[in-house]
Each structure stands twice: as structure tokens, then as C-alpha cells.
Amino acid sequence: MPMGEAQHVDAVVVGLGVGGEEVAGRLAEAGLSVVGIEHALVGGECPYWGCIPTKMMIRAGNALAEARRIPGLAGASTVRPDWTPVARRIRAEATDTWDDKVAVDRFTGKGGRFVRGRAAIAGPGRVRVNDQEYVAARALVLATGTAAVVPPIDGLAGTPFWTNREAVEAEHLPGSLLVLGGGAIGLELSQVMARFGVSVTVIEGSDRVLAMEEPESSELAAQALSRDGVTILTGVRAQRVAHSADGFALTLSDGRTITGQQLLVATGRTARLGELGVDSIGLDPTARHLVTDDRMRVADQVWAVGDVTGNGAFTHMAMYEGDVAVRDILGQGGPGADYRARPRVTFTDPEIGAVGFTERQARDAGLDVRIGHTALPSSSRGFIHGPGNDGFIKLVADGARGVLVGATSAGPAGGEVLGALSVAVHAEVPVSTLRGTIWAYPTFHRAIGDAVRALG
Ligand SMILES: Cc1cc2nc3c(=O)[nH]c(=O)nc-3n(C[C@H](O)[C@H](O)[C@H](O)COP(=O)(O)OP(=O)(O)OC[C@H]3O[C@@H](n4cnc5c(N)ncnc54)[C@H](O)[C@@H]3O)c2cc1C
Ligand SMILES: NC(=O)c1ccc[n+]([C@@H]2O[C@H](COP(=O)([O-])OP(=O)(O)OC[C@H]3O[C@@H](n4cnc5c(N)ncnc54)[C@H](O)[C@@H]3O)[C@@H](O)[C@H]2O)c1
């Protein structure tokens, strides 16, 4: 098809996931002529195959687990898991059967022009999609996110393995599941599946699951999943994959072979810059991520936001970076990106929330590290809660400045309790102020007070 005449606009946004939708919508609302390009679904990974449907699964799995805790607390219970309502909720409530009409209308309703297709950068300010070229006079915004990494394991390519996408779309669960990767995706989905009766084995290459977090978090997650019947293998890698009518067989680096009806690959994400044509604007197509400054700029009149920047692959980070980029593009000023208090929550049960530095990171940064730790079961609320009360609070303080630089909050409401700790790290609330704070009784968050006292 011959190329149409180039169309000139103020801004072109490539990728309308969480970050791109935020930027494109706000620029359009500000009166700029904006073309937003998306080759899959407007909204991106989070609403269709990520956060929202997986948290619906987790809500269902947690309901089963709570029902199983009734004996000893409130009588007797019989639990018969059924995936049907979960699949129905994901289809009907979360994803509209993977239809983005509402999101497209939301964007065009703000005045944006929507183009469905896979875009490639053709030079400074120039983007090609569907044999049409758009030229951005003011801003080119790259918000192309990431895709699941498929490791180069012998025999894996071409087999019908799952990534998060197929796991979310599943109408029926397998009898058994092998999970490659013990990060956030691997652990969250493993626990859900196990709670629905799937026999799950996690294969994690490093020596602990959730390896980016505190060792105490890894241990807690491993214990919790083991209690749900998940087998966790650490320090082993899959060397060969075979698939037959019976399912998958993995030959591991320790010589063992393990089998499962289905295989979930959850070994991280890749930004796939090579396909985007970033070399045409002087950026490295082999880089892992686009390197941004504190205004989210990657080159002259080019901004990047969200997972593609590698600054923390979370929806809240994509939205945060989107806000920084929009303010910069519109010349509105305000603070630049500040990553000191990056929060993250792994929604296992117990939830594992963390913000800022881990102890290791703080020590590596040469800080005068002080640690405050308290176990949740020994708090009043943990004691009251009984079954399912596992968790802890760990604080990482910089003794020289008397402020927290990091914290972990693990427990039944670990992600919620994290809120107070995020404020403390972000606003550099003095430890002396935290010490004098009144924490309501008997809440889970009151354990923060115990952990502050334990800082010494
Ligand atoms: C299973 C799972 C669970 C998750 N759970 C959570 C959670 O609980 N909390 C949380 O904060 N985060 C969670 N995340 C992470 C979250 O989904 C991402 O951080 C978020 O989606 C990033 O938004 P983004 O806009 O950067 O990228 P994406 O959402 O990936 O959007 C990028 C968009 O760009 C499009 N695109 C790419 N290349 C092109 C191109 N060349 N042309 C046109 N379009 C293109 C893609 O189709 C995509 O729609 C989860 C992720 C997964 C996979
Ligand atoms: N609750 C949340 O906010 C949430 C939930 C899910 C995903 N996410 C986001 O999505 C990102 C991706 O999640 P993920 O779990 O795929 O990645 P991850 O990077 O968190 O974990 C991947 C794990 O796979 C292991 N691994 C890599 N190659 C392997 C191999 N060949 N064999 C065995 N193990 C191997 C790694 O050591 C690592 O522990 C997360 O980092 C997070 O930013 C967030």
C-alpha cells in the first residue's frame, strides 16, 4: 500500500497502556492535537492480563483460604472450589471479553485521535503505522511497556506454554502446573492455582523466591506457598522442555525431570526496543530499557514512561511517570521524578509490601543502617487474628539522618499498612516523630510503632 501524506500533529503517543493512556488523554484534554497508537488493547497489560484480573483471581483464592480457616475459629466449613465464577468475572467484569471499546471512546472523547496498529519510529518526531506517517511537532512519547520473556530453553519454543496472558484467559484450570520463575507473577498465580486444587511446582533459578525483596520476605512467601501445597524448587533451572499429549516434562539442571499438565513461564519482562525503531532517533535498540532523565526525557522532544523505562514495572509507576512527562511537555513545572520511595506489593497471602531500599541496598549505598523488626503474630492484632496472621514489619533507617530509607510490611493487610511507611520514606518523617506517633489499637499498622521502637 502506498504511504499516505504525512500528517502533522502536536504529539504522538506510541502504546496506550496505563502510562500512554494517561499521557495521551491529558495532552488531548489540554487542547493539543494528539495521535495515540495501540496495536493491542487500550489500557494495556494491567486491566486485561495483569493487575486487575490477577487480583480478581487472588480475591477468589483468598476467599477459599479464609473459608478453610473457619474450623477452630467459627465452626465448620466445606469448600468446593470452582473456577467458573472467576473466569466469568474476568471475562465479563474486568475485560469485557478483552474488548477495549470503552477505553477507546474515553480517549477519543477527550479529543484524541486513535490509531490501531503497530508503530515504528522513522526519525525525529516521525512515526509510521499502517503505512501512514505522523509527525509530532512538540512531543513523541514512548509508552510501549514490556512483554513476557521467553527464555531460550531447549524445546520450549513452539510448545503451548502459558504466559500471564493465557493464565488469565483460562476458562479451565489444569490438574497440575509447572511455574518457571518465582517472582511476583509466578508466586501470585501459583498460590491462586494451588488454592483451587491445582498441583503446583515453582522452579526458581536463583537461591530464593522474590529475590529482589528482603530475605525475610522470600522466606515468608516460600513458607506460605508451601502451606498451600506448592512445591518450591530454588537454585535450579530448566534445561530442556518436552511437550506431549500428557503435558510438559522439564529436565532440570540438577538432573531431575518433573512433569505437569501445563507450564507457566514467568521469568520476567522485556521491553523489545529493537522492534520500535529507536535507533532512528539515536537510541540503543539492544538496551534493556529506555534511559530517562528526571523529566522522563530520553532524547530531544522524546519522552518515555512506564515499564519501558525500567524504573519499576508497576502501574502506579507508569501513572506517576505519565504525570511527570505531561507536566514537562505542557511546561507546567513541578517536581521531577523521585524514585526514593518506590512502593511495590506482591499480592500473595500474606501480602508483601515494600518501599524504598532493602537492607542490602541501604548497606551497599554506604548508609549508617539501623534495622527495626517486629513479627506480626506477636502484635495484639496478629494474636487476635489467629490463623493467617503471618507477617512482619522491617524498617531500614539511615542512622546518620534519623529517617527511614526503606520498609517492608508483610501480613494479611501488608499492602495497606505499607501506605504509612510510603509516606514516612517519601516525606523523610524523622524517626523521632514516628516514635511519638499514636498508632490505633488493635490495628495491624500499630506494629509499625513496635518496629520503630526496635530501631533502638
Ligand atoms: C500478571 C501481571 C500482574 C501484574 N500485577 C500488577 C499489580 O498488581 N500492580 C501493579 O502496580 N502492577 C502490576 N503489573 C504490572 C503492570 O501491568 C505494568 O506495570 C503496567 O501495565 C505498565 O504500563 P505501561 O503503560 O508501561 O505498559 P503496558 O501496560 O504494557 O502497555 C504498553 C502498551 O503498548 C502497546 N505497544 C507496544 N509496542 C507498540 C507499538 N510498537 N505500537 C503500538 N502499540 C504498542 C502494547 O500493546 C501495550 O498495550 C502486573 C503485570 C503482570 C504481567
Ligand atoms: N503485585 C504486583 O505489583 C505485580 C504482580 C505481577 C507482576 N508485576 C510486575 O511484573 C514484573 C514481572 O514479573 P515476573 O514475575 O515475570 O518477573 P520477576 O523479574 O519479578 O521474576 C522472575 C523470576 O524468574 C527467575 N528466572 C528467570 N529466568 C529463569 C529461568 N530460566 N528458570 C528459572 N527461573 C528463572 C528470576 O530469577 C526471577 O526470580 C514484576 O517485576 C513486577 O514489576 C507486579
From TrEMBL:
**A single Pfam family, by name?**
Pyr_redox_2
Q: What name is this protein filed under?
A: Pyruvate/2-oxoglutarate dehydrogenase complex dihydrolipoamide dehydrogenase (E3) component
Any idea which UniProt keywords this protein has?
Answer: FAD, Flavoprotein, NAD, Nucleotide-binding, Pyruvate
- Any idea which positions bind NAD(+)? 181-188, 204, 268
Which pairs are disulfide-linked? 46-51
Domain called FAD/NAD(P)-binding: residue spans: 10-322
Task: Give the family from UniProt.
Answer: Belongs to the class-I pyridine nucleotide-disulfide oxidoreductase family.
Organism of origin:
Krasilnikovia cinnamomea
Q: How is the cofactor bound?
A: Binds 1 FAD per subunit.
Coiled-coil portions? none
- List, alphabetically, the Gene3D superfamilies matched: 3.30.390.30, FAD/NAD(P)-binding domain (3.50.50.60)
Q: Which residues bind FAD?
A: 55, 307
* Cofactor(s) required, per the database record: FAD
**Which InterPro entries does the entry link to?**
FAD/NAD-bd_sf (IPR036188), FAD/NAD-binding_dom (IPR023753), FAD/NAD-linked_Rdtase_dimer_sf (IPR016156), Pyr_nuc-diS_OxRdtase (IPR001100), Pyr_nucl-diS_OxRdtase_dimer (IPR004099)
Which GO molecular function annotation, any one, does this entry have? flavin adenine dinucleotide binding
